[in-house]
Design the sequence.
């Protein structure tokens, strides 16, 4: 009998077994750190800590991907900066303990970097990372962040920043488990995109001792400590049954009676594009361009961007690639596209609003995309994030057309755009429902707040009503509406969305086979009936249950 099983929310399908590697949180200097008895010895401790941080970052750089290496090397240089060491030494001389001295020197430097602006201001995050690591080193506790992995590992953390998740080594990370996060937090999205089984909201996960073997079920959201052979065998049988069912259908997505629903990939960069391009799917429904630049300190040049976009477009040949222009801000901060602190960033100048304040961001992207489209001959379609009004849609479409790109679309992820989609879509060629943000804004619930995940449930009937309104507006305007939020990758919800009239479903590639299978088992009329059932329900749980009970049994058998 297997030991302890912890339950959370499954966000990236698949199962995996491996030893736990805990991601240590940042440490603060202890409030009761004594003043140094021997200032010389305390200064040496500071210097040793900074040197060990620099050496560790160099080691990580040597093992990192081409993309992450220069960032880690530049961060190691900050740890070696003589001025930083001198400033910390001065604070030791003034009576601060080594941990507080490092923190004070970092604060001082950060203020100077921010005042200098530009490139320096963009290095403040790296500087603080160096400070956190050096404080951990003087205290003799594990360095914060993901440690260097030496073998297959299950990464366990309170939560992971998008940049941390993106930098994970796919070859060694077999599963991800977090205590916080939610279905639509960017850690969950990135894990699914990377094809790494993942569970979030797993209470007590951070207390699992490092090295414990765990079995992670990314569908059920379960984490079992010290799994026995019986459990591993049951997981194997389930995996094989599911694989056989999913392999029984291939090709373009369609309902049982042949109504086409295009199945597309959500991707975040060239590696994802190469992997997705080799799979049985009809193209890309969402390329989150901001994911390419999560760690970029400065704005990439047009030619640098064009190089990335060529790499993304090429694997898809003549298949469509829907590129979303930068969606920076709120939970996806970019160092070079930051308009400063806001009280409520999710309601502030993020997405298209930020690009309207800094048009050079969007214009350089569109120019680079036009170059890449010309060079590859790809079927490129461009869409804007966070559109709320007709004016915004019009502004975006005119810039896309001015750049010589053939098709402009908008994401429908703000209830205002969904309710007025008939007018908003009249300005563009297509719409794409971002159900992650649409749920956030419809339910007035921060998508990062894992503890509110019941409110964010995409089965919430209010969210389904807003989606239905957007689809009705699309039908009226004669413009196709797809889905690129996480809900499109849930096989049961995909049936409801098909019933509401969407023309395409875009998701992490690992989710495509189950959605294709679900569609192939039901006629379009059956999907419509399932949509009616869901919208007729009083609660999210009842909507989910009603559709599960009414869907074909073959589908329930593999969920
Ligand atoms: C969405 O909001 O549903 C979406 C697809 O965009 P993102 O998750 O990147 O905000
Ligand atoms: Mg969004």
Sequence:
């Amino acid at each position: 009998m297997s030991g302890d099983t912890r339950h959370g929310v499954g966000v990236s399908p698949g199962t995996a077994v491996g030893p736990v590697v805990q991601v240590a949180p940042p440490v603060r200097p202890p409030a009761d750190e004594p003043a140094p008895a021997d200032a010389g010895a305390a200064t040496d401790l500071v210097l040793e800590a900074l040197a060990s941080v620099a050496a560790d970052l160099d080691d990580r750089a040597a093992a990192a991907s081409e993309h992450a290496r220069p960032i880690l090397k530049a961060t190691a240089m900050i740890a070696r900066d003589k001025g930083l060491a001198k400033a910390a030494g001065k604070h030791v001389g003034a009576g601060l303990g080594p941990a507080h001295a490092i923190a004070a020197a970092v604060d001082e430097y950060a203020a100077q970097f921010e005042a200098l602006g530009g490139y320096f201001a963009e290095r403040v995050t790296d500087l603080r990372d160096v400070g956190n690591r050096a404080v951990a080193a003087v205290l003799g506790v594990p360095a914060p962040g993901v440690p260097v992995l030496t073998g297959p590992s299950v990464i366990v953390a309170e939560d992971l920043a998008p940049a941390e998740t993106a930098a994970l080594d796919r070859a060694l990370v077999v599963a991800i488990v977090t205590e916080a996060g939610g279905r639509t937090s960017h850690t969950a999205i990135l894990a699914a995109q990377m094809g790494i089984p993942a569970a979030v909201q797993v209470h007590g996960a951070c207390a699992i001792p490092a090295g414990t073997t765990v079995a992670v079920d990314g569908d059920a959201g379960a984490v079992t400590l010290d799994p026995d052979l019986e459990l591993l065998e049951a997981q194997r049988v389930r995996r094989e049954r599911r694989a056989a069912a999913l392999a029984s259908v291939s090709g373009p997505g369609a309902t049982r009676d042949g109504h086409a629903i295009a199945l597309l990939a959500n991707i975040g960069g060239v590696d994802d594009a190469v992997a997705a391009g080799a799979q049985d799917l009809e193209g890309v429904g969402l390329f989150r361009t901001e994911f390419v630049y999560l760690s970029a300190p400065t704005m990439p040049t047009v030619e640098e961007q064009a190089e990335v976009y060529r790499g993304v477009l090429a694997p898809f040949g003549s298949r469509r690639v829907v590129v979303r222009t930068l969606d920076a801000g709120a939970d996806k901060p970019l160092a070079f596209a930051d308009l400063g602190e806001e009280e409520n960033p999710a309601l502030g100048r993020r997405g298209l609003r930020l690009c309207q304040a800094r048009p050079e961001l969007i214009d350089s992207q569109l120019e680079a995309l036009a170059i890449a489209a010309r060079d590859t001959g790809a079927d490129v379609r461009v869409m804007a994030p966070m559109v709320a009004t007709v004016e915004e849609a019009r502004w975006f479409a005119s810039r896309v057309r001015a750049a010589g790109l053939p098709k402009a679309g908008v994401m429908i992820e703000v209830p205002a755009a969904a309710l007025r989609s008939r007018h908003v879509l009249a300005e563009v060629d297509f719409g794409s429902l971002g159900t992650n943000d649409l749920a956030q804004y419809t339910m007035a619930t921060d998508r990062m707040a894992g503890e509110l995940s019941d409110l964010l449930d995409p089965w919430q009937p209010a969210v389904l009503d807003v989606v239905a309104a957007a689809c009705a507006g699309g039908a009226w305007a004669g413009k196709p509406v797809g889905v690129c939020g996480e809900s499109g990758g849930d096989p049961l919800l995909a049936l409801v969305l098909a019933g509401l009239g969407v023309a395409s479903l875009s998701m992490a590639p690992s989710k495509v086979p189950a959605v294709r299978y679900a569609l192939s088992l039901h006629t379009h009329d059956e999907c419509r009936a399932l949509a009616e059932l869901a919208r007729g329900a009083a609660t999210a749980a009842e909507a989910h249950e009603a559709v599960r009970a009414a869907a074909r049994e073959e589908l329930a058998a593999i969920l």
